Amino acid sequence: MNLSFFIAYRYFKSKKKRNFITVLSRISMVGVAVGTAALVIVLSVFNGLEDLVKSLYASFDAEIKIEAAKGKSFLAEPNWLKEIESVEGVEVLTEVIEDNALFRYRDYQHLARIKGVSDNYLQQGRFEKGYIWGQLDFGSETRPMAILGRGVAFFLSVDLDNPVDLLQVYYPKAPRSAGTIDPNQLYSRASLKPGAFFSVEKEFDDNYILAPIWFVSDLLNYGQKRTALEVKVREGENIQQVKTRLKTLLGNDFTVKDTDEQHAEILRTIKIEKLFVFLTLSFILAVASFNIFFSLSMLAIEKKKDTAVMVAMGARQSLIRKIYLKQGAVIALTGAAIGLVVGFFTCWAQDQFGIVSLGIASSIVESYPVKMIWTDFLWTTLAVIAITFLASFRPAWIASKVRPTEI
């Protein structure tokens, strides 16, 4: 066994004296353990929240979304769409027309986004992570049906069991038709039967109504123009590789985004919050490590005679420094090991049994989601090592300056 580590470990395990220094060392160890466990648990919760957000958005958004790089819409000719469908890895291609519209049901009105989708929209596995009320169906040409977000349905007080009242949709016409004195000529109007409600995430629930693409195309007078194309990737294919193939085919006139890129802002926000939480808890861990600094400082004073004897026997300053640095390392790493184990089992228990509830009755998940990533354990351990070294360096340096002639 290394000599410096042997002496440091003996100091840590010594049972001959249970004085204040020993108590302070144990308190330091407990402080490091609590700080380490808190880091692991909080970082795992952020990972779980990030995965939850991704899964909720993925229930509504496409795996790959194609939009015009400039402008609001683009012409989608049948032959061009077939070229995209023939790209290796593309399983389902859904045409989309999306815009704002005014909705009216009985005496209630609400401004929301109408999203017209082709018939294969539901083949992309939508709403797997959400709740559905009613029947997911877009009806027929003689009786088009809409799928409403639960929030929109609440604002409009929509009743799915009412076979009489229909959902009225109003969309303003082009400015050139504004010269008429008839108000009815200023907007297009059409009717839909509410068929189902969906609940995925509040942003979508409160703002979206889905309808057949031919219905929205007629209402908005879009013809063959589309605002987006949504792609479902064939099972077993790599999404990034399919995205690269689509970019090569479409060129610079179109943007091709995966699910994460479609919501880059909110995911970036979660990552930034996670970073600041890590820095904040690391700072708290550094404050807790002050106990290591004080315990080592007092240990250096208590063991001054022992240090002088070792120096007289030929011990170098580097050996004395290593003894106290490793003493601090033993305290901190023991606490860190305990903290990592406690954090791991706490996260495991939360994941398996949902001990801590979100407390939100309308939430898709009942308890806080957690996801453990090995890099979080690695960075936590590295943070503990760095903080321990900084806390132990000064007492070790002071102890190494002891001279036998001073004792």
TrEMBL record:
Coiled coil: none
Record-level GO cellular component terms: plasma membrane protein complex
MacB-like periplasmic core domain boundaries: 27-248
Residue ranges of domain ABC3 transporter permease C-terminal in the record: 281-402
Membrane topology: Multi-pass membrane protein
Keyword Signal in record: no
GO biological process: lipoprotein localization to outer membrane
Transmembrane segments: 20-46, 275-302, 323-345, 377-397
Localisation: Cell membrane
Keyword list, A-Z: Cell membrane, Membrane, Transmembrane, Transmembrane helix
Transmembrane helix keyword on record: yes
Family as reported in the entry's similarity comment: Belongs to the ABC-4 integral membrane protein family. LolC/E subfamily.
Protein name: Releasing system transmembrane protein
Organism: Mariniradius saccharolyticus AK6
Classification lineage: Bacteria, Pseudomonadati, Bacteroidota, Cytophagia, Cytophagales
